[in-house]
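Handout, page 2. Input:
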Amino acid sequence: MSPAADAAPARASDPDALPATARGADVSPAGAGERVLVVDDDPPLRRMLERTLHAEGFEVTVASDGGAALAAAERAAPDVIVLDVAMAGLDGLAVCRRLRERGLPTPILMLTARDAVPDRVAALEADADDYLVKPFAVQELLARLKALTRRHGDPHGQAVLSYADLSLNPYARRATRAGRAIELTGREAALLELLLREAGRIVTRERALVEIWDDAAEPNVVDRYVTRLRRKLGSPPLIRTLRGTGFALRA
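Output:
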């Protein structure tokens, strides 16, 4: 076996592929007690993910179809969800949308065999937080899950953000303006959170893309979401457009 082949990362297509911690190496586990829900209708891949994530310190719940995923998401209260797109019946995109409609803020990582731009955009438009193309390296999956749980943070440590008569609970994804409740999708809430944290200062389109969409979407997606936020927040307008620069919250 060549050195290059010997150094190749374990990939999800190999049911026996396990990361270093699962083989007893002295590496800190990625999960550290986090609860993960794995949803995939491919039994070998589902078993491999369950075994690998358990070895990495995650508390793992599995579901084999969309209906079971919806029930498990309510019952298991996961910290992160790994969700396959191409499932029979209720597919991953539909599951993701339904979870968001129910107000579930849990970060969702989509697994997809499709790498075309429209497919990636569809996953993000369904309000998933990230996506990973099959076949993937297990180490990359673990790194993405760790980033998602870190970015999502401790719900008890996130204070309500306020500006003028607008407030947002980032974890619960609940916003109010002048006492009126405002329903937000995950990315709408993330964009509003960014604007609130930088209230009065300019947030560029490029920064919003990197922090919220991981630079995977078209630049005009930020403008579309700003338009949606303006409509939901109502009058008088709080989000100002600074032509050629970005956006800012200004009362």
